[in-house]
Amino acid sequence: MEYKQWNVQIWISEDDNDAVTTATAVLFTADGKRHESVAHARRNPSDRPVPGIGDELAAGRALSNLASKLIEDGAEDVAQLAGTA
Fold first, then answer.
1. Which of 13, 39, 42, 71 has its CA 20 to 30 A from that of 56?
2. Over the stretch 50-81, which tens digit does the pLDDT of each residue have?
3. Residue 23 contacts residue 12 (beta carbons within 8 Å)
4. pTM above 0.90?
5. Does residue 62 contact residue 25 with C-beta atoms inside 8 Å?
6. 17: which DSSP letter?
7. How far apart are CA 74 and CA 59, in angstroms?
8. Is 17 left (phi over 0), alpha (psi -120 to 50) or beta?
């Protein structure tokens, strides 16, 4: 059985006011494909800044979107192989 390892890198940044956190998740597959997703988390102005919360939300959203893209890509590949695309 062949094992493969895919690694996802996540970059997280915050704006100058600590109001918006942006996460970019990038997956590089062994065959050279690159998949990327960007997501944001916005802090309610009445909440105190807790950077870890924005990091978690933005990263989770980016990973969720990346997962959706991978599922969509897989479904399109299956459709092409079946001749329905």
1. 71
2. 879 999 999 999 999 999 999 998 899 899 99
3. yes
4. no
5. yes
6. T
7. 22
8. alpha
Per residue in 28-45, pLDDT (tens digit) is: 888 888 999 999 999 988
CA 39 distance to own-chain centroid: 7
Phi-psi region of 44 (alpha: psi -120 to 50; beta: other; left: phi over 0): beta
Put the strands of the sheet holding 7-14 in their side by side order.
Answer: 7-14, 20-28, 34-42
Q: How many CB atoms lie within 10 A of CB 24?
A: 17
End-to-end CA distance of the chain: 31
Is the pLDDT at 85 greater than 60? The verdict is: no
Rounded Cα gap, residues 9 and 26, in angstroms: 5
